[in-house]
Amino acid sequence: MPRQLRPGQRAEIYLLDVTSGHKTLRFSTDSILVEAPNWSPDGRSLIVNGDGHLFRLGVDTGPLEQIDLGDVPDINNDHVLSPDGRFAYVSSDDGHIYAVALTGTDTRRVTNDRGPDFRHYLHGISPDGTLLAYIGMQILDDGVRTNVYTVPAAGGQDIQLTDDDFPDDGAEFSPDGQWIYFNSERASTAPGHAQLFRMPAAGGTIEQLTDDERVNWFPHPAPDGRSLVYVSFPLGTLGHPADKDVIVRLRDEDGTIRDLDHLFGGQGTINVPSWEPNGTRIAFVAYPVDHAA
User: Fold this and answer.
1) Does residue 293 have a pLDDT over 60?
2) Which of 17, 40, 80, 91 has its CA 20 to 30 A from that of 152?
3) What is the pLDDT of residues 24-74, one digit of tens each?
């Protein structure tokens, strides 16, 4: 069942200049819980999900327009765009990843059938558009096991890059295709307390990028590869829940971390690659609640 807004709640899409801090409210709705903006490669539109569907929103003006997904089952907030802007790759509630033509109605399933207890959660695409990075979730009798995988965007054999019991999520390629960034609890001695990491795109030694008291999720490298934007949850948060006071943060290449915005959000705020192609702005979603409603 797709997420719904609470009574008195709105979904607000913002555009924020990471240098000046100037923030613009682009879209607000109290009728549909929109999530996870992708910025189109031409810089003209945002792609978001909501109510199991995919939508296009002009960066500067225009209404929210639904994109035809053909016979793809309801989708969640894990989606990326091909570098040429022709396709969206989406994670469906049936556990698979699909390719959807953004003009026309062509759709196809990308992922392989690994049984009913395995689900694919998409987060990244290589800069040449040939590989998808996803989190593979195995559903076990006593919980779940998540690891980082890649699969050809055209379909083909999966490659498993991590093989352990540490909770991992948010696998995304660097702009040069050399690294995969992700969040993980592998540095924690207790459940929760995810931090940010990276590893070579073909697998290998894992490098920790953040080490603080907050819970850090979904690293998104800037187009020039010199910084990361991510969402930071309060100490003690388990997973990446909705409706939390969170901080959208930026980590510079020298390790300096600065706050970009404080907001009520979390799940859906910035799950997917959301940089403007020129690296000037990011897009994200807040979910304020009018408690008097």
Assistant:
1) no
2) 40
3) 999 999 999 999 999 999 999 999 999 999 999 999 999 999 999 999 999
Residue ranges per structural domain of the chain? 13-284
Angle at CA of residue 261, ends 191 and 239, nearest 5°: 15
Partners of 25 in beta bridges:
14
Q: Which residues of 136-160 are buried (b: 16+ CB within 10 A; e: fewer)?
A: bbeeeeeeebbbbbbbebeeeebee
The domain defined by 13-284 carries CATH number 2.120.10.30? yes
Task: Supply φ then ψ for residue 246, to 5 degrees.
Answer: -125, 170
Please name the amino acid found at residue 126.
S
Two structure tokens written together for 277: 């192609």
Average pLDDT, integer, range 98-106: 89
Q: If you search the block for the tokens 């706050």, which residue do you land on?
A: 259
Entry pTM: 0.96
What are the DSSP calls for 161-200, one per residue? ---SSS-EEEEEE-TTSSEEEEEESTT-SSS---EEEEEE
Choose among 213, 120, 205: nearest CA to 171. 120
Confidence band of 292 (pLDDT split at 50, 70, 90): low
pLDDT at 103: 84
Quick one: pLDDT band at residue 174, thresholds 50, 70, 90? very high
**Contact predicate 190/176, CB 8 Å:** no
Tokens matching residue 44 = 């003209």
> What is the rounded distance in angstroms from the CA atom of residue 240 to the CA atom of residue 262?
16
* Integer CA distances (angstroms), 18 to 30, 58, 201, 281, in order: 27, 20, 27, 6
C-alpha torsion sign, points 34, 180, 99, 103? positive
